[in-house]
Amino acid sequence: MSSPSPDARRGKIARLILIGLLVALGLWIVSGFLPALIWAVVIAVALDPLVARAETRFPTTSRGLIAFLFTLAVALLVLVPIGFGIAQGAREAHDIAGWIAQARHDGLPPPPWIATLPFGSGEIAGWWRDHLADPADATAYLDGLNHTLIATHGTLIGKGIAHRSVIFGFTLLTLFFLVRDRDAIVAQCRAASEKMLGPTGERIGRQALLSVRGTIDGLVLVGLGVGALMAMVYFLLGVPHPILLGFATAILAMIPFGAAAAFAIAALLLLVQGSPIGAIVVIVIGLGIVFVADHFIRPTLIGSATRLPFLWVLIGILGGVEALGLLGLFVGPATMAVLVMLWRELVEGEPGPVA
Q: How many secondary structure helices (H) and strands (E) does the chain include?
């Protein structure tokens, strides 16, 4: 068999260099939208069983309409709670404005609940007397605080909201096309993986899909369950805005150890209301619910899908969050699952089953 001519080798090298440059240029162009693309893929993978069921149940309905309805449902699922939180925040802003006006005019004496704190009550009461008890001190402190917050965070918050709104809109647009054209996209991905990776590509793709779905079950569903239970606890203990705080708890509970921040806020609100016993109860109940969720329910849901020990699940989640933010909740465990699958195949010497 004759070896390729020098011209053929040079032509092949030139093609590879050109392809590499084009891929690098393409990644650079879309780098700002990569989070939106990945979010859309994650959501599409999570919705795929529901989309398939809807297409089976309504065979005469166009795929475009089904894709639009699912995209609209995702948009409402995100926007409705945000709108509710903004409405609650607007009402709270009115109360805060009244509190600030009272502080400027009359000053604010230390509230009685500070004396009930198990530790630090003297230091907190002293700070309060120095900064808020006298009207002149309160006015100077609040003016400086308000100026600092506006100067430091006002522009950043505005830019952050605009950027996230664009990313969210592009995520919805991408999700629509992924759901509508999912059969063609899956076929193209299978063909490409077969050519580039052979049978391994099919196993990697299947493991990644199972891992994303298992992670969604273990993080999102368990987080929503924790939030719902804690919303009832907040309501029974008299925590202000239990539904809004329950929603925040659900979001934070999707991150390991994140729900503790919501419990601390609820406990602080109860302390302000003069209920230290209620603050202790909400912390104890909250930690108990999270302990059961993190040590029994979540490892079963995620580990059964990813075939990962819980240590690697935790490393994938926390490392993914540190590297990619909330997106890492789903990308991290899926990446760990694929790497562990490849490692097992290398050690065992043959492909392992992906169930």
A: 14, 0
pLDDT tens digits for range 36-63: 898 899 899 888 989 999 989 988 888 9
Residue 88 neighbours by CB distance under 10 Å: 15
For the chain, the structural domain boundaries read 32-180, 199-355
Pull the structure tokens for residue 319. Answer: 């490392």
CA separation, residue 171 to residues 44, 134, 219, 239 (Å): 10, 51, 21, 35
What's the confidence (pLDDT) of residue 353?
47
Cα–Cα distance, 124 to 114 (Å, whole number):
7
Q: How many whole angstroms separate alpha carbon 222 and alpha carbon 228?
A: 10
Q: What is the mean pLDDT of residues 209-232?
A: 86
Query: Tokens 């609209």 — which residue?
Result: 72
Cα separation of 64 and 84, whole Å? 30
Q: Which amino acid is at 179?
A: V
pTM, full prediction:
0.72
Gap between the Cα atoms of 310 and 303, Å rounded? 7
For residue 307, which phi and psi values (nearest 5 degrees)?
A: 60, 40
DSSP calls for 259-280: HHHHHHHHHHHHHHTT-HHHHH
Q: For residue 142, name the pLDDT band (cuts at 50, 70, 90).
A: low
Q: Is the pLDDT of residue 151 over 70?
A: no
